[in-house]
Amino acid sequence: MVTVNGQEENVAGQTVIDFLKQRNAPVDNIVVERNGEIVHRAEFDQVTLAAGDKVELISFVGGG
Fold first, then answer.
1. Which InterPro entries match (predicted)?
2. Using CA of residue 45, residue 47, residue 51, residue 54, what is the dihedral sign?
3. Is residue 40 part of a domain?
4. CB–CB of 46/15 below 8 Å?
5. SS3 assignment, position 60
6. What's the whole-model pTM score?
7. What is the DSSP-derived secondary structure letter of residue 61?
8. How do 54-59 and 2-4 pair as beta strands?
9. Is the per-residue pLDDT at 33 higher than 80?
10. Which residue range is the domain that position 23 belongs to?
């Protein structure tokens, strides 16, 4: 299990990009932190989530 924003999810084995696409997350406007380190967008297709990982997703919302 992977902890995502405080909730356990069964997404171990997925790449970050596949995980984001499954969630319909805005890939261009999101920051992914994995185990306390930022995952750079260029590495989304190379980094695989593993059991025990802690992931935080932060998306930017514009407004005015």
1. Beta-grasp_dom_sf, Mopterin_synth/thiamin_S_b, Thi_S, ThiS/MoaD-like
2. negative
3. yes
4. yes
5. coil
6. 0.89
7. -
8. parallel
9. yes
10. 2-59
Structure tokens at 2: 């992977």
Q: Dmax over Cα atoms in the chain, in whole Å? A: 40
Q: What is the DSSP letter of 40?
A: P
Per the CB < 8 A criterion, the answer to whether 32 and 40 are in contact is: no
In a domain, 64, yes or no: no
* Residue 27 forms part of a structural domain: yes
In 3-state terms, what secondary structure has residue 28?
helix
Single-letter residue type at 4: V
Would you give the end-to-end CA distance of the chain in angstroms?
38
- Residue 44 sits in a domain of what CATH number? 3.10.20.30
Rounded Cα gap, residues 3 and 40, in angstroms: 19
Residue 64 has pLDDT above 80, yes or no: no
| pLDDT classification of 54: cutoffs 50, 70, 90 | very high
Task: Count the domains in the chain.
Answer: 1
